[in-house]
Amino acid sequence: MKQNEIKQLSNDDLKSRVSLMNEQYEKMKLSHKVTPLENPLQIRAMRKTIARLNTEITKRSAEA
């Protein structure tokens, strides 16, 4: 998810996406421990996307 896509989302969408992606991230980490993923870089990409979403939420709350 690109930064300009994130900026277009509403606050509620951001929060729901963060919670959804956190769930997916935890499942992905667990499945990677059991049987290694074909592309383990997906874990890093998801973690960075979650960080981008959280950064945008923090930025918006600081502006308000």
How does this structure look, described?
This protein has about 60 residues and is an all-alpha fold. It has one domain (about 5-64). The protein has helices at about 5-10, 10-35, 40-64. The protein is elongated, with a radius of gyration of 13 Å.
What would a concise description of this structure say?
With 64 residues, this protein is mainly alpha-helical. 83% of the residues lie in helices and 0% in strands.
What is the element layout, followed by pairings?
Layout: H1 3-8, H2 11-34, H3 41-63
Helix pairs in contact: 2-3
The total number of structural domains is 1
- Low-pLDDT runs of 5+ residues are none
Overall residue-averaged pLDDT value: 96
Radius of gyration over all CA atoms, rounded = 13 Å
What is the H-and-E element order? HHH
Key descriptive features of the protein:
single chain, 64 residues, mainly alpha, 3 helices
